[in-house]
């Protein structure tokens, strides 16, 4: 039994994480087959298959950690950072949203200044569409799902099993980065950058004991990166208000993977880590 439980009788964190991923894989497989069968009989599903699959996937990724933690392991959801949105957590969420916008806007400006990217349409010619609203909602789901899984569940499970919190942050960052392995343009620099983002988000989680600060950052970082500034989001293209074309050496702009695959974002992430430490030391984040 010691293989499965520690000295306190707690299921080991490795098993909790493995069980979660196995359950998610099975549910995602079933979901994909159900939607695939509906495509044959429904034209509307066929025409919107990608967005339906994405929303369905995120719903599975949200429900599985919650049900696993609450029903299977019978633990309080606050232990995986899922806390009520009280005044403190709303403040953290809003701060995260602002930080995400600031960080990706800085990356966007640096890409323009370095001449490794150019805008296709003028700032005076935005391309509004209903798809932008749909993708904003989607990125809310994505940000919440990935933070609940990568920060809340993984770090929470390891902390409950008495693992060192900074070791837990490192493990969650590696898993978070590997989750992007199959994305278009994934290579060494994208792996390292997403790992650094994982460290940044993990630091936020450990210091606030909540997923809301990192969730806010994650949402606006993705949405503004893809839908406002027109750059690929981890190798994925989206509808866009403005469109950017990358030029020159992809080591700066990230090429097909998007800015998260370039050294400009490496610098931005490091700057955000320094800013986060400053905010925490000055008690702006609690």
From TrEMBL:
This protein's species is Clostridium paraputrificum
GO terms, biological process: CAAX-box protein maturation
What are the recorded GO MF terms, alphabetically? endopeptidase activity
Q: Which domain of life is it from?
A: Bacteria
Q: What range(s) does the CAAX prenyl protease 2/Lysostaphin resistance protein A-like domain occupy? A: 130-224
Its keywords, alphabetically, are: Membrane, Transmembrane, Transmembrane helix
Entries under InterPro entries matching the protein: Rce1/LyrA-like_dom (IPR003675)
Q: Which residues cross the membrane?
A: 21-43, 49-72, 93-113, 128-145, 166-182, 188-207, 219-242, 262-280
Give a yes or no for keyword Transmembrane helix in this entry. yes
On whether Ligase is a keyword of this UniProt record, the answer is no
Q: What is this protein called?
A: CAAX prenyl protease 2/Lysostaphin resistance protein A-like domain-containing protein
């Amino acid at each position: 039994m010691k293989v499965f439980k520690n000295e306190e009788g707690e299921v080991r964190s490795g098993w909790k994480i493995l069980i979660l991923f196995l359950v998610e894989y099975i549910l995602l497989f079933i979901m994909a087959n159900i939607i695939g069968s509906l495509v044959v009989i429904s034209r509307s599903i066929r025409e919107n298959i990608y967005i339906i699959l994405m929303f369905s996937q995120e719903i599975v990724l949200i429900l599985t950690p919650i049900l696993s933690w609450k029903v299977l392991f019978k633990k309080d959801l606050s232990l995986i950072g899922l806390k009520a949105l009280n005044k403190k957590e709303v403040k953290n969420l809003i701060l995260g949203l602002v930080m995400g916008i600031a960080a990706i806007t800085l990356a966007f400006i640096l890409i323009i200044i370095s001449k490794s990217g150019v805008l296709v349409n003028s700032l005076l010619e935005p391309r509004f569409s209903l798809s932008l609203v749909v993708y904003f909602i989607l990125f809310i789901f994505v940000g919440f799902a990935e933070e609940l899984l990568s920060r809340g569940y993984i770090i929470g499970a390891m902390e409950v099993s008495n693992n060192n919190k900074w070791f837990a942050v490192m493990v969650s960052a590696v898993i978070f980065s590997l989750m992007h392995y199959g994305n278009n343009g994934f290579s060494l620099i994208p792996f390292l950058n997403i790992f650094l983002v994982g460290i940044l988000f993990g630091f936020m989680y450990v210091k606030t004991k909540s997923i809301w600060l990192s969730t806010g950052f994650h949402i606006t970082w993705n949405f503004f990166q893809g839908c406002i500034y027109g750059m690929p989001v981890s190798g994925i293209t989206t509808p866009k208000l403005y469109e950017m074309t990358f030029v020159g050496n992809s080591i700066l702009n990230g090429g097909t993977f998007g800015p998260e695959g370039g050294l400009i974002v490496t610098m931005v992430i490091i700057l955000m880590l320094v800013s986060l430490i400053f905010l925490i030391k000055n008690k702006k984040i609690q």
